[in-house]
Write a structure and sequence with these properties.
Subcellular location: Cytoplasm
Largest sheet: 8 strands, mixed
Number of helices: 12
GO molecular function, one term: pyrroline-5-carboxylate reductase activity
CATH class of the largest domain: Alpha Beta
Pathway: Amino-acid biosynthesis; L-proline biosynthesis; L-proline from L-glutamate 5-semialdehyde: step 1/1
Keywords: Amino-acid biosynthesis, Cytoplasm, NADP, Oxidoreductase, Proline biosynthesis
CATH superfamily of the largest domain: NAD(P)-binding Rossmann-like Domain
Number of domains: 2
Number of strands: 8
Helix content: 40-55%
EC number: 1.5.1.2
CATH topology of the largest domain: Rossmann fold
Distance between the termini: 36 Å
Strand order of the largest sheet: 3-2-1-4-5-6-7-8
């Protein structure tokens, strides 16, 4: 990202992950600022990455090309209204807060160069996926910069419709928990089948990891991969039929629709 200057407002886990990913990509620490009221967290970032740290948000954003808003949604309005006097339309603002619309950010900050981003928790280990939406005021160069920034912690995909952020939240933002739930259930079932708890957990965890890697690396889609390991009337076929008879696909759709609906509700509440 060359000499692009980036300021993080909020120095929590996601900000720390992004900063770590940027440094691994070769972004110079002197081009990165972080601001947060928590001095212990700031000192940890400074000692780890040698970045500049601030407790004053207005000072931190001065001269920044990109401002990453990495604070909790509940305090976003307060933070933005305090920053409004210091931010200009020449700066790109990227929000990673769930539920805060671009219209709200524009209203609170007074600038139009806004990108909303919905990352997920595997970004903490540089294996995340993020959905991005940019307002019309964002330039092609700024879109490229945002994509490079989020690519530091995984895959970045663009959305042309901001409302699709709710679907991204349902599929990938909340998605890791669904897989954790399946791993939990498989582990418990393995224990009931007689496996020691630690072995059941390892079998479930590493099976999930291996299947995920295959799905990401293969040219075949998930349905084709499933069919390859499902011999007619075999053990896998018996398990798959049990899932389907229990309404598995419909249950997943209902769950994701519930997550998307709740995302819409929270967005409305937080934007008022």
């Amino acid at each position: 990202m060359g000499n692009t200057k980036i300021t993080f407002i909020g120095a929590g886990n996601m900000a720390a992950s992004l900063i770590g990913g940027l440094c691994k990509q070769g972004v110079h620490a002197h081009n990165i600022n972080a601001s947060d009221p928590g001095e212990a967290q700031l000192e940890k970032l400074k000692s780890t990455y040698a970045i500049h740290i601030f407790t004053d948000n207005q000072l931190a954003v001065k001269g920044a090309d990109i401002i990453v808003l990495a604070v909790k949604p509940q305090i976003m309005r307060q933070v933005c209204e305090q920053l409004a006097v210091a931010v200009t339309d020449q700066q790109l603002v990227i929000s990673i807060a769930a539920g805060i619309t671009s219209d709200s950010l524009i209203r609170w900050l007074g600038v139009h160069t806004i990108i909303r981003c919905m990352p997920n928790t595997p970004a903490l280990i540089q294996q995340g996926v993020s959905g991005l939406y940019a307002t019309k005021a964002v330039s092609t160069q700024q879109r490229k910069q945002a994509e490079q920034l989020l690519s530091a912690v995984g895959l970045a995909v663009w959305l042309e419709n901001e409302q699709l952020i709710d679907a991204v939240t349902a599929v990938s933002g909340s998605g890791p928990a669904y897989f954790f739930l399946l791993i939990e259930a498989m582990t418990e079932a393995g224990i009931k089948l007689g496996l020691p708890a630690d072995i059941a957990a390892q079998l479930a965890q590493y099976t999930a990891q291996g299947a995920s890697n295959m799905a990401c690396q293969s040219t075949l889609d998930a349905a084709q991969l499933r069919q390859q390991v499902t011999s007619p009337n075999g053990t896998t076929d018996a398990a798959i039929r049990a899932f389907q008879q229990g309404g598995f696909n419909q249950l997943v759709e209902t769950a994701l629709r519930s997550a998307a609906s709740r995302s819409q509700e929270l967005a409305q509440q937080l934007s008022e």
